[in-house]
Amino acid sequence: MLLPFRLNQTQIWINLVGWRRRSLYQQKKINMRVFVTGATGFIGTAIVQELISAGHQVLGLARSDASANKLIEAGAEVHRGSLEDLDSLRSGAAQSDGVIHAGFIHDFTRFKEVCEIDKKAIETIGAMLAGSERPLIVTSGTALVSPGTLATEEIIPPFNPAWPRASEYTADAVAALGVRAASLRLSPSVHGEGDHHGFIPILVNIAREKGFSAYIGEGLNQLNAVHRLDAAHLFRLALEQATPGARYHGSTEEAITVKAIAEAIGKQLNVSVKSITPGAASEHFGWFSPMAAIDCPASSRWTQEHLNWHPTHSTLLADIENGVYTK
Question: Is 18 a domain residue?
Answer without folding.
Answer: yes
